[in-house]
Amino acid sequence: MVRAKKHLGQHFLKDTNIAGKISSSLVNDKNLEILEIGPGTGILTKFLIDRDEKLSLVEIDNESVEYLKENFNQDDFRLLNLDFLKMDLEEYFSDEFCIIGNFPYNISSQIFFKLLDNRDRIPELSGMIQKEVAERIASVHGNKTYGILSVLLQLFFKIEYLFTVSEHVFVPPPRVKSAVIRLTRYRTEIDGVDFSKLKLIVKTSFNQRRKTLRNSLKSILPSGFITDSEVFNKRPEQLSPEEFVYLTVMIFK
Which residue in 197, 236, 196, 198 sits closest to 215, CA to CA? Predict the structure, then answer.
């Protein structure tokens, strides 16, 4: 079996039953093109080909790319030997598309931030990530696991934690459990709110999560801004995603 380079953080799935469940987890009710990130040796790819939708694969590891070329019919998909995080998605996708994959642990958060930046083009994502990250994304306010990705993703996507996956279904087995999660977009914009400003508020708040918002946001508040509202007495994990929207509007109105 082809092994991904160690620095890629990739653990290859060996359980075909799990691969089938991941494939089935993507609804894709608009029959859009599917992009699989990090196909490795193609255990999930086999099931995606059977779905009979237009399919693209993006794989950074050259050895895996060669394996896919040698063991699959190239007419079944478009194979891109690229780094997903550096891709200009508009260059490769003229329309909306869905994302799926067994995502490398070390870049899963970056994949979700890229999803946010391209949310107008990606209505659905389903995939396997580290269980801890999945729980963080699905977490509600008031929990210690609630953070930047929880807030930003929940403002645009419905989050569904689907099922937990044992570490023993991978080669090599990771030291942690995994989980399959599905994100379904329900809006692309928030009326009257600039996403970059919202992201700045959320990130700055959680970068000093033990402090009250009055202290953590001090460095970015407009000159002369008065923090007498009750919300500034709270810590970031106490605010719901919609309350962060309210806070952004209040600060940048």
Answer: 236
